[in-house]
Design a protein that fits this description.
Largest sheet of chain B: 5 strands, mixed
Largest sheet of chain A: none
Number of helices of chain A: 13
Largest interface: A-B, 46 and 45 residues
Number of strands of chain A: 0
Strand content of chain A: under 5%
Radius of gyration of chain A: 24 Å
Strand content of chain B: 15-25%
Shape of chain A: globular
Oligomer: heterodimer
Structural class of chain A: mainly alpha
Distance between the termini of chain A: 7 Å
Order of helices and strands of chain A: HHHHHHHHHHHHH
Helix content of chain B: 25-40%
Helix content of chain A: over 70%
Chain lengths: 315, 532
C-alpha cells in the first residue's frame, strides 16, 4: 500500500509538472499580452512606453527564463504579483477560494443527494410513469445550459418575489446567506444531479438483474434492504467515479454560474485573468485547480477500496 | 458682446438649476448610493486609462482646475466653472492661461494642495517629469503647452506655443483631475488620493469599488451622500435584473441599450430613465495603403452605399443620430447644418440613387454583377462592434462587395489595426470633450497615434490649426464645418452613426444629470442625494 501511495504521489508530481509546462506555454501562444491589452484599451501605442512596461513586468525575457522564474517562485512560496491589480497573486486568489469551494461543495451535495436517490427510484420503478418523468427531468438537466437556467431563475425570482438571489457579501439574514450559495449551487448542480441520476439508474438496473439480488429477494429481504443495502452498495462505484469527474469539471460550470449570479469566486476570476492575460494569476490558479483535480482523482481511487472490499492497492 | 451672451446664458442656467432644485425638494444628507459597474477597471488611475469605466467610479475622488457644470447636460465653454482654481484669465495675447488656486484645500491624506501639485500633474502628462505614467493616452492634449510655471503656492500658468481656447475645455474634462505630487503613479493606480468629495476606500478587482464621504471637503455642505458603492457585474442581464429588484439605486451611466430600456421601464415603471448621445461614433476604418481600398473610387463607392437610417432603426429603434465627425445637433455643439451634411456624397436621403452612383464607381474600378469584390470586415468581438459590422456587410452586397466578418478579440484588435492587417474595420471612437481640437488632432492629424488609418492631408492639417486658434465661436464653427465636410468627402473614416444610450435611476435618487455630449465628464456626484 505504501509503495502504491509513493508511486501515486510521484505520478501526481509528474502530472503537475506537465500541467505547469502546458499552461505556461499555452498562455504565451495565445496572441496578445497584458501590455497589448492595456494599450488597446487606451487606443494608442507608444513603443517606448510599451517596452518599458514589458520590462517592468518581466515579459520581455526569454520564455524559459520566465518559466524558471515562475516555478522557482512557486517552490519558494512566491506566487508573484497580479499584472492588473498589482497586488500579490496569493492575496488575490486566496479570498476567492472559500467562496468557490462552498459553491462547488454545495453543488456536489445537491448533485449526490438528489441524483442518487432519484436514480435508485427510477431504476426500481423501471417502466413506470415515475421512471419516465424522472428520465425527462434528467434529460432536461443535461440539455439546459446553466447560464440560461441561471438567468431564468433570476428572472423568475425578480418577477415573483421582487428579490434577486445574486451574491451578497454581507447577508443580513440567514435566508439571504443561504440564498447566496444555495440557489446558484442548485443551478450548477442540476446538470450534475441529472448525470448522477442517469448513471445511478443504469448501474442499479444492471445490479438488480444479478443472481444474488434474486437470492436476496428469495430469502425474504425487504425491498429497501435489497435496493439500498445489497444493490446500491455494488452499483455505487461508477457513480463515485462520475461524481469525482464532475468535481473536476464543475469549475467549468461555475465560470458561467459565477458570472450570472455575480459571485466573486475563483472561476469567474480566472476568466477575467485570462481576458487580461494576467499570467501570474492564470498560471497559479490553473495549478491550484490541477492540484484539486489530481487530489479528487486520488480520493476517488481511495474510496473504491472503502466501498468495495475486493479492491486492494498493493504493489 | 460675448460677455453679455455668457451672462445671459449663465442666468438661464442658474434659473434652470434653481427650478431643478425646487422640483427635487430640499437636499437630504446621508445614504449610500448603490450602483453597478459594467466591468472591472484595470486600475484606479484616471490619467492612465482611456475608458469611462475609470471616470465613473474615480472622478468623485478628485477635483480639476475647472470643471463642466455637473447640473447642466450640455458641456460647453459657457458651462465651465472653477473647481480647484478660483478664477482664470487668458493673458499674453491668449498664449498664457493663468489660474488663481483655491487656498486651504487638503488632499485626502491631510497634506495641503498647492500649485506644485498642478505643475507636476501636467508636467507628468506632458512627459516632462521624472516620474512617468505607465500609460499616457492623452499626452497629445498638451501638445501646444510649452511649459507650466507657478507664482507662489496658489497661482499657476500654462504657457502655450500658440493660442488654443479649447485648452480650458480639455482641462474641464473628467479625464483631467489634479493628482498629488507626493503620491507615486503606481500608488495612484491602487489607492488614489484626491481632494474630491469622496475618499477612496477599496477596490476589489471584479468585485466592488467603495468610496466614502470626505468630511473635510472644501465645498461646504457637499457631498450629500455618505458614500458610493459600485458592485462590479459584468453580465448585463444580471445587472439590469438587480436594478429592477432594487438592489441598486442606479444603473451604470449610459450603459442601458435602447431595447433594454424598454425592459427596465416595463418591469419597473417608477424608474427614471433618460436617453442621451454619448459622443461615441461608429465608423469605418479603411486601409487605404493597400489594394483594393487604395483606390479612392472604391472608398467613395463604399461611403455611398451606406444606408445610415437602416443602422439607426435596426440597432437603436430610431434613437441615434446621423452626422459627420462632430456630434450631431442639438446635443453636439459643432454639428454641420442639415443641408450641408446632406450635400456630402452618401448622406443624401435617396439611398437608391446613392447606390446607383456607387455601382458606377465600382464598375469603373473593374467590378460588377459578374465580378464581386471580396473583402474582410474586421471588428472587435463585442456586440456594439459586431452588430453594425454585420449590417455593413449586408449593405455592401448592394454594390458588388462581398464582405466576410472577421471578429477579433480585444487583445488583438489594436495590434492588428496598428500593423494595418485589415482591409475594412468597424470601429468605435469616443470623444471625451465635444471640441474639434480633441477630435480632429486625435483621429485625423498626420502621425497621431490614434489616427489608425494614417489619413494625412496637410491642407486640412493647416485648417485644424486655424480653427484651433480662433477665439470667435461663430467663425470657428464655420471652419469646423468645412473641415468636417472635407473629412467625409475624403472618406477619411466614414462615420455611420452616433449612438444614444440610456441611464436609469430610482425615483428617490435626486440631483443626477446625464451629460448629453460626452460620457466622460459628469460623475462628480457631489450634488446627488437620496430622498428616502
Amino acid at each position: 500500500m505504501l509503495a502504491y501511495l509513493v508511486r501515486r504521489l510521484g505520478l501526481m508530481l509528474l502530472t503537475l509538472f506537465g500541467i505547469s509546462v502546458v499552461i505556461f506555454f499555452l498562455l504565451r501562444i495565445v496572441p496578445g499580452n497584458i501590455v497589448d491589452i492595456l494599450f488597446a484599451a487606451a487606443g494608442y501605442v507608444d513603443p517606448a512606453d510599451k517596452a518599458n512596461l514589458e520590462k517592468e513586468l518581466g515579459i520581455d525575457q526569454p520564455l524559459i527564463v520566465q518559466y524558471l522564474h515562475w516555478i522557482g517562485g512557486l517552490l519558494r512560496g512566491d506566487f508573484g504579483y497580479s499584472y492588473v491589480s498589482e497586488k500579490p497573486a496569493l492575496q488575490e486568489i486566496l479570498p476567492r477560494i472559500p467562496i468557490t469551494a462552498r459553491l462547488a461543495g454545495l453543488a456536489l451535495m445537491f448533485s449526490a443527494s438528489i441524483g442518487i436517490p432519484l436514480g435508485v427510484l427510477s431504476a426500481v420503478r423501471q417502466g413506470t410513469r415515475l421512471d419516465y418523468t424522472l428520465r425527462v427531468v434528467s434529460l432536461s438537466g443535461l440539455s439546459l445550459p446553466s447560464f440560461w437556467l441561471g438567468l431564468l431563475v433570476l428572472t423568475a425570482a425578480v418577477a415573483m418575489f421582487g428579490q434577486i438571489p445574486i451574491f451578497n457579501p454581507n447577508p443580513a439574514t440567514f435566508l439571504e446567506a443561504f440564498a447566496t450559495y444555495a440557489v446558484p449551487a442548485a443551478v450548477v448542480g442540476f446538470r450534475s444531479a441529472a448525470l448522477t441520476m442517469r448513471i445511478t439508474r443504469s448501474s442499479m438496473l444492471e445490479v438488480l438483474r444479478q443472481d444474488y439480488i434474486r437470492t436476496a429477494r428469495a430469502k425474504g429481504a425487504s425491498d429497501a434492504a435489497v435496493n439500498y443495502h445489497h444493490a446500491l452498495k455494488n452499483a455505487i462505484l461508477p457513480v463515485i467515479t462520475v461524481i469525482g469527474i464532475e468535481a473536476a469539471f464543475l469549475i467549468g460550470g461555475l465560470i458561467v454560474t459565477e458570472t450570472v449570479f455575480n459571485i466573486p469566486g475563483v472561476a469567474r476570476f480566472l476568466v477575467e485573468a485570462i481576458r487580461w492575460r494576467d499570467y501570474p494569476i492564470v498560471q497559479n490558479l490553473v495549478m491550484f485547480i490541477a492540484v484539486v483535480v489530481v487530489l479528487a482523482n486520488f480520493t476517488v481511487d481511495m474510496l473504491y477500496a472503502v466501498f468495495d472490499p475486493r479492491i486492494r492497492y498493493t504493489d | 458682446m460675448r460677455s453679455v451672451r455668457a451672462l445671459a446664458a449663465m442666468a438661464v442656467l442658474s434659473l434652470l438649476a434653481v427650478s431643478t432644485a425646487a422640483f427635487g425638494g430640499e437636499p437630504k444628507q446621508g445614504g449610500i448610493l448603490r450602483m453597478y459597474h459594467r466591468d472591472s477597471p484595470g486600475s484606479a488611475s484616471i490619467h492612465e486609462g482611456a475608458t469611462y469605466s475609470l471616470n465613473v467610479p474615480f472622478m468623485p475622488v478628485f477635483n480639476n482646475l475647472v470643471i463642466f457644470r455637473q447640473d447642466v447636460a450640455q458641456n460647453s465653454m459657457d458651462t465651465i466653472v472653477p473647481d480647484l482654481a478660483e478664477s482664470w484669465a487668458w493673458v499674453n495675447d491668449n498664449k498664457t492661461l493663468t489660474f488663481k488656486l483655491r487656498q486651504g484645500v487638503k488632499w485626502h491624506d491631510g497634506k495641503p494642495f498647492t500649485s506644485a501639485d498642478v505643475k507636476c500633474t501636467f508636467e507628468m502628462l506632458m512627459g516632462k517629469s521624472q516620474q512617468k505614467f505607465r500609460q499616457n493616452p492623452r499626452k497629445a492634449w498638451y501638445n501646444e503647452v510649452n511649459d507650466i510655471t507657478t507664482n507662489g503656492d496658489f497661482e499657476v500658468s500654462f504657457n502655450l506655443k500658440r493660442p488654443q481656447p479649447s485648452l480650458l475645455a480639455l482641462l474641464a474634462s473628467g479625464y483631467t483631475p489634479v493628482y498629488p505630487c507626493h503620491v507615486s503613479p503606481a500608488d495612484m493606480r491602487t489607492h488614489p488620493i484626491g481632494t474630491g468629495p469622496f475618499k477612496f476606500v477599496e477596490f476589489k478587482a471584479n468585485e466592488s469599488i467603495k468610496l466614502t464621504r470626505n468630511p473635510d471637503y472644501w465645498k461646504k455642505g457637499r457631498p450629500y451622500l455618505d458614500g458610493i458603492e459600485f458592485t462590479i457585474i459584468t453580465n448585463r442581464s444580471t445587472a439590469i435584473l438587480a436594478f429592477v429588484a432594487g438592489k441598486f439605486d442606479m444603473t451604470f451611466p449610459t450603459e442601458v441599450s435602447i431595447p433594454l430600456l424598454k425592459d427596465v421601464k416595463s418591469q419597473d415603471p417608477t424608474a427614471v430613465c433618460v436617453v442621451e448621445p454619448n459622443n461615441v461614433s461608429t465608423n469605418i476604418i479603411v486601409n487605404s495603403t493597400a489594394p483594393p481600398f487604395d483606390n479612392i473610387d472604391i472608398r467613395r463607392a463604399m461611403a455611398l452605399a451606406l444606408d445610415r437610417k437602416a443602422f439607426v432603426s435596426i440597432l437603436f429603434e430610431g434613437q441615434a443620430d446621423i452626422g459627420g465627425t462632430m456630434l450631431p445637433a442639438p446635443a453636439g455643439l459643432w454639428a454641420m447644418p442639415k443641408e450641408m451634411l446632406e450635400s456630402i456624397p452618401g448622406y443624401g436621403p435617396d439611398v437608391n440613387a446613392n447606390r446607383e452612383a456607387a455601382k458606377k464607381l465600382m464598375q469603373k474600378a473593374g467590378y460588377g454583377p459578374d465580378k464581386h469584390l471580396a473583402v474582410k470586415v474586421s471588428t472587435r468581438n463585442i456586440p456594439v462592434y459586431r452588430d453594425p459590422a454585420v449590417i455593413l456587410i449586408d449593405q455592401l452586397k448592394s454594390i458588388y462587395i462581398d464582405g466576410e466578418l472577421d471578429v477579433v478579440e480585444t487583445a488583438n484588435w489594436f495590434p492588428k489595426v496598428a500593423r494595418k492587417d485589415y482591409m475594412l474595420g468597424l470601429n468605435l471612437t469616443g470623444n471625451a470633450v465635444d471640441d474639434p481640437d480633441q477630435s480632429f488632432y486625435e483621429n485625423y492629424s498626420c502621425g497621431s497615434e490614434r489616427n489608425y488609418t494614417n489619413y494625412c492631408n496637410k491642407d486640412i492639417e493647416k485648417l485644424f490649426d486655424v480653427q484651433s486658434q480662433e477665439h470667435d465661436l461663430d467663425k470657428r464653427k464655420k471652419l469646423v464645418w468645412e473641415i468636417d465636410k472635407k473629412l467625409q468627402e475624403d472618406v477619411a473614416r466614414p462615420i455611420i452613426f452616433h449612438a444614444r444610450t440610456g441611464t436609469c435611476w430610482k425615483p428617490y435618487v435626486k440631483g443626477v444629470t446625464v451629460m448629453s455630449n460626452s460620457s466622460y465628464n459628469g460623475y462628480r456626484y457631489e450634488d446627488v442625494w437620496l430622498d428616502k
